[in-house]
Amino acid sequence: MALAPLVEPADELTVDEVRRYSRHLIIPDVGMAGQKRLKNAKVLVIGAGGLGSPALLYLAAAGVGTLGIIDFDTVDESNLQRQVIHGQSDIGKSKALSAKESVAEINPYVNVVLHEERLDVDNVLQVFADYDLILDGTDNFATRYLVNDAAVILGKPYVWGSIYRFEGQVSVFWAQEGPQYRDLYPEPPPPGMVPSCAEGGVLGVLCASIGSVMVNEAIKLITGIGDPLIGRLLVFDALEMRWTELKIRRDPHGEPPTALLEDYEAFCGVLSDEAADAAADSTISVTTLSSWLKEREEGTRDFVLVDVREPNEYEINKIPGSVLIPKGEFLAGNALSQLPQDKQVVLQCKSGARSAEVLAILKSAGLEDSVHVGGGVVAWVNQIDPSQPSY
Amino acid sequence: MTIRLNGSDHVLPGPTTVLTLVDRLDLGRTDLAVAVDGAVVPRSEWADHTIPDGADVDVVTAVQGG
């Protein structure tokens, strides 16, 4: 079911513009009115990278009048395998500037606004305010949750796409018309569990498959045609060459964000390199922990479970059989002496970020068999003991 | 009972909720969406949503790349 067009039409198209966009104009569903809406549209693309490259090229060619580009990065040679808006001579240049130059070559009638900064809690609401529609092509979970929350707060729709290796996912999130990102993925992954494209790789052309769907949906929303990808997730498998469509609905018990979080990197448990290395092969799930605790009761396994959160957090919920030693005690060097030297140490916090940091400390102190619990007490409450409150 | 899990047959010991299935799979991930017969089950309904015999279940994990 089509929604009302997102953008009012511009007053007119020039003769040059009519010539340029003639293949759109003769499609009855787009026509002069639709093309004028595109001309009047202000679209922000977050990240001039893998998804941002095809998105910006096609949005520009389609005649979107104002394109915002936010990116703080510079073009690296390793980007050119997929970030087709940049070229060999752009290496070392600001991605935002390089993208602007490509857009100008494709369509000189597009007004490009550059935001050469990192999107964060301090600027996101102000940056988004000027745009009708946002395309999220960023490369990390912290920014993805930030984009979602800001879009929900401002009541703006955004087209979301993400990619990894041979898999792509794409949807449109608009809280007032359907579900938002947190209805699909209420929790970020456990810290250190999900590799980025820089760590795990990505098939270059996958960016075009997903990026082109993103532009397709942007054009539909702006002009008010077709059935928007709201409440639907498309999952693309490039190896099987299969698109799977899954319906998404609002979580009736989910609470949409009404304010930004203070720190999205902390929410997503962004880890230091040391913590990520320590956690790489020493992370257990809450399910494993649950069976280990049973074995400990039965006397067939011995370990000490250390909760490294703060005392006030420990009062809200806890994993039975844990002892509390806050992370600060480990950083200060006071905690190691409190640990039994002859038992394996299992660490746990709220989400798995702090416990991974402490894990790095224990491993460097020689406690090599220590492990930490991915997802922490949040996962414990969700998966093992839903009777406990979460926070 | 048998379900289709991400396109392959998967045997369950008996009536299973989405929460129990996720637990059994022990993927070590919290960034999961689970769809039963083409519809994502909201997280707050995992504990109460029993998977019907023969259901098509998709377990999708979040990806972050762009």
From TrEMBL, chain A:
Main localization, broad class: membrane
Nucleotidyltransferase in keyword set: yes
CDD domains on file: RHOD (cd00158), ThiF_MoeB_HesA_family (cd00757)
CC annotations in GO: cytosol; membrane
Family assignment from sequence similarity: In the N-terminal section; belongs to the HesA/MoeB/ThiF family.
NCBIfam families, sorted: PRK05690.1, PRK07878.1
Protein name per UniProt: Probable adenylyltransferase/sulfurtransferase MoeZ
Organism annotation: Mumia zhuanghuii
Lineage, broadest ranks: Bacteria, Bacillati, Actinomycetota, Actinomycetes, Propionibacteriales
UniProtKB/TrEMBL annotation, chain B:
Pfam families: ThiS
InterPro entries: Beta-grasp_dom_sf, Mopterin_synth/thiamin_S_b, Thi_S, ThiS/MoaD-like
Gene3D superfamilies: 3.10.20.30
Chain segments annotated as coiled-coil in the UniProt record: none
PANTHER family: SULFUR CARRIER PROTEIN THIS (PTHR34472:SF1)
Protein name (record): Sulfur carrier protein ThiS
Species this protein is from: Mumia xiangluensis
Gene behind the chain: thiS
